[in-house]
Amino acid sequence: MRRTRVRLADVAREAGVSLATVDRVVNERPGVRRRTADHIWDTIQRLESAPLPGLPAASRCPLHFDVVLPAGPNTFMQNLDNQVVALGRELASEDVTVTCHRIEGFNPAVLATTIRELGETSNGLAIAALENPVVREAVNLLAERGIPVVTLVCDLSNARTVGYVGLDNRAAGRTAGYLMGRFAGGRTGPVALIAGSIGLSYRDHQERELGFRDALYEHFGNLTIADRFEDLDDFQKGHEQTNIILDRFPDLLGIYNIGGGTRGIAAALKERGVAGRVIFIGHDITRFTRQFLIEGVMDAVINQDVTHEVTAALQHLLAFHGRPLPSPRLGQPRIEIFVRENMP
After folding, report:
1. Using a CB cutoff of 8 Å and minimum separation of 24, what contacts does 109-112 make?
2. Taking every pair of C-alpha atoms in the chain, what is the biggest distance, in angstroms?
3. Identical fold at 8-49 and 169-303?
4. Top-level CATH class of 8-49?
5. Residue 214 · residue 174 · CB < 8 Å
6. Does domain 61-166+306-334 have CATH number 3.40.50.2300?
7. Going residue by residue through the chain (344 aa), what tens digit of pLDDT does each one get?
């Protein structure tokens, strides 16, 4: 696939062809005559090399980007929101505005509707995606209109996005499994999984669970997975689920929290007097998880850098429009492991 930094809609208008035809040519799909394809590439080259009179190429027009994140008490998502606002302030001087939208989580219909509605006025979206066909179709609809979409934190399979910014979540889950096995020190017993999303509707949660199970199966036959529970990334539900787990499995060795709700899990472990005995591994450094590491309630936190992720997502959108980047181009964030002795 050959990339272009101009909007597909602009190419279609200038070349006098449909958006679908431009999309097929840019993505090297069959069904377009050679003469038409050559005309489209000539149009792209002309648009890329010809700034508006009197203006540098980087200042052609203002841009507006939209970031869509799930609402709720998830501290990590709030940290992402805060970073979007902060970076938006920095980009304002470059005629770029960024708006963060918090919507009902775990509802693919709401997310798909939001994507379509924002696509009417936006120059690009970054979304925490739900793995669902209606979301995929909404993203692909925007692609046909020449509007770029980046998946942030949670990827979406078989969608025509311009990039994904987030962890290798299969590797993150394997990391959690390896840590769980090492902390167990050869003891035999059950460990529990707590996932945020209903039916693992977030792809990152799916991949983390698969990685965790793989690592235990391959390296730590002394550990068995008792069950998977769901807390909707809500700390109150996390508290309830942890009490259910402790009642059902009095010999529990550990808990791996795939998503949010960490505050409730930690509170239940402390109230039941098993904090420090039950291994507790979770995700993302926040003001809460820092304290849980210091107290010894959590054993390890697998982190992703929110500043890196928001910056990289907006860089994808800026690059699509041929705009200069606010900093050197960032790649995918790395998996970071923190314990009480090395917190940032």
Report:
1. 109/134, 111/68, 111/135, 111/138, 112/137, 112/138
2. 74
3. no
4. mainly alpha
5. yes
6. yes
7. 455 567 787 788 777 788 888 888 888 888 888 888 888 887 887 777 655 444 444 445 899 999 999 998 889 999 999 999 999 999 998 899 999 999 998 899 999 999 999 999 999 999 999 999 999 999 999 999 999 999 999 999 999 999 999 999 999 999 999 999 999 999 999 999 999 865 557 888 999 999 999 999 999 999 999 989 999 889 999 999 999 999 999 999 999 999 999 999 999 999 999 999 999 999 999 999 999 999 999 999 999 999 999 999 999 999 888 887 767 778 889 999 999 999 98
Check if the beta carbon of residue 75 is closer than 8 Å to that of residue 287: yes
Give the number of residues written for the chain.
344
Cα R_g (the chain), whole angstroms: 23
CATH topology of domain 169-303: Rossmann fold (3.40.50)
> What residue spans define the domains of the chain?
8-49, 61-166+306-334, 169-303
